[in-house]
Design brief:
Blueprint lengths: L11 H7 L2 H15 L13 E6 L6 H5 L6 E6 L6 H14 L3 E7 L10 H10 L13 H13 L10 E6 L6 E4 L3
Parallel strand pairs: 1-2, 1-3, 3-4
Antiparallel strand pairs: 4-5
């Protein structure tokens, strides 16, 4: 698969000669802005849904879910983990911006499956300070989706927890597999 950000093998030197990756992104933004027209939307998602997913670069959520600009709120982090900050974002999304549904998406081959909480210890040894956050690694992606659904459903801050569904995205087929909350 080739994307606009793809770099052919052996062309790392070409990027250095042209500038940084960030320079390339800024140039792309200038081209985008030249043709940009304000769509006249506000921050309220049209479909009243918030999607929580992993930050993995292989997940093109809008394409995979048939979404357009303005349809949803998208919250992403390593593993698509429902952390306190995700609850914070979902709470604002629901209470101030009108979302009612929550879709949780983990995926096959997630990097968190190969990490452990030892990563925090390694960081502490390297930098002299232990991170306050948990790695939230897992071995069973289905169970982790169930745990995420449970965290959302039991949060006292969320008003709408009746339409919370969890899925695993297969990075090889592009298909979603729904997880029974159990």
């Amino acid at each position: 698969m080739t994307t606009s950000a793809s770099v052919p093998a052996g062309s790392e030197d070409a990027i250095t000669r042209v500038g940084t990756v960030t320079d390339r992104l800024v140039e792309a933004n200038e081209r985008y802005a030249a043709a940009f027209t304000d769509p006249g939307m506000d921050a309220r998602p049209v479909l009243r849904v918030a999607v929580v997913a992993c930050m993995d670069a292989r997940l093109d959520l809008h394409a995979a879910l048939g979404l357009e600009l303005g349809d949803c709120h998208t919250i992403r982090n390593a593993g698509g983990v429902v952390t306190d900050d995700v609850i914070r974002s979902l709470t604002i999304s629901q209470r101030k911006l009108g979302t009612r549904s929550i879709v949780l998406i983990h995926h096959t081959g997630c990097g968190l499956e190969s990490l452990t909480e030892d990563f925090r210890t390694e960081l502490e040894l390297e930098v002299g300070q232990r991170p306050a956050w948990a790695v939230e690694s897992f071995r069973d992606v289905d169970q982790d989706v169930r745990q995420s659904m449970q965290r959302v459903r039991t949060s006292p801050f969320l008003l709408h927890t009746d339409d919370v569904r969890g899925f695993v995205f297969d990075v090889r087929t592009g298909l979603l597999r729904e997880i029974d909350p159990g």
